[in-house]
Amino acid sequence: MTPVHDVEALLRSALIPVEPSEAMSDRLERGLSELTDAAVEELADWELSAMRDPRNWGRPVAAVLVGGTAAGALVLVRARQQHKRRQSTGLRALERGLRDVAADLRLRRG
Amino acid sequence: MGDKQRIDRDFTELYRAHLRDVYSYSYYRIGNHHDAEDITEQTFLQAYRHFERAQRESDGRPLRPWLIRIAHNLAANYYRDRARRPQTQLEDAAVVSDPHGTEELAAGRQELKDVLEGVSNLPDDRREALIMRFALGMDNREIARALDRTEGATKVLIHRAIRQLEQGLQESE
């Protein structure tokens, strides 16, 4: 009969942590940086137009909370990324993320 | 330091500290590297969008359980959308995570394969708890937060998962 502590030892050996590939890390970091850029651009355009319309003066606060985080959340990651070789692989998942954020910002515009 | 700079710094730290955790969890849940990468990417994108609020509501507690919970929900959607079951690939995991340890792994490969197969056949909540405990090294408190259970219930869950796995291994001998 296999004692419980042996099963735990087997689990530790079997479920070893898995390192993501370099390509995947690069892609993710690039995508997050692009997400930052997209949010900043959307926010800047919207802020300019919205602030001219008194009906929207209450709305930018919510967007600044969302976009403000998005605006620079990965500056440090980007700094690291600039030292790494860039690759031209697809960004299917990140494109979905960008679309989500754009939709989110559109919703908040009202 | 301003709020934005602090958030920048904290999110970067979270990303660097837990990229491997999220990827490992996704890999053992999904069973292939391609989809695990997708889940990992989506997890950090969602985390990024909700980070400020999560940090505010965490009251200083570690955010790893929150991050793993995002991955957990995404993986659940993955199965719901595609009606798939996990397919653990031991050889791929070994090569990616420990390229210099393959001889050692080869010796006990069948045993480890049996364990992984046993884990993949466990009910979802038991399988996830074991992945969090053994692949990510999370303690009961963290696992409880990730699975939205009490610590006591989590302890029981892990104990039962190990017992079930043990019984399965004995029956297959």
Description:
The complex is a heterodimer of chains A (110) and B (173). In chain A, 73% of the residues lie in helices and 0% in strands. By secondary structure, chain A is mainly alpha-helical. Chain A has one domain (21-109). In chain A, helix 2 packs across helix 4 (75-81) and helix 2 (22-52) runs parallel beside helix 5. The longest helix of chain A is centred in the middle third of the chain and has 31 residues, at 22-52. Chain A is elongated, with a radius of gyration of 21 Å. Chain B is mainly alpha-helical and 173 residues long. Chain B folds into 2 domains: 1-87, RNA polymerase sigma factor, region 2, helix turn helix motif (Rna Polymerase Sigma Factor, Chain: A, Orthogonal Bundle), CATH 1.10.1740; 122-173, Winged helix-like DNA-binding domain superfamily/Winged helix DNA-binding domain (Arc Repressor Mutant, subunit A), CATH 1.10.10.10. Chain B contains 9 helices and no strands. Chain B has helices at 3-30, 33-58, 64-82, 90-97, 102-107, 109-120, 124-135, 140-147, 151-172. In chain B, helix 8 (140-147) crosses helix 9. Chains A and B meet through helix 1, helix 2, helix 3, helix 4 and helix 5 of A and helix 1, helix 2, helix 4, helix 6 and helix 7 of B.
Describe, in short, the structure shown.
The complex is a heterodimer of chains A (110) and B (173). By secondary structure, chain A is mostly helical. Chain A has helices at residues 4-14, 22-52, 60-72, 75-81, 92-109.
Quick tags:
heterodimer, A: 110 residues, mainly alpha, 5 helices, 0% strand, B: 173 residues, Rna Polymerase Sigma Factor, Chain: A, Arc Repressor Mutant, subunit A, 2 domains, 9 helices, 82% helix, globular
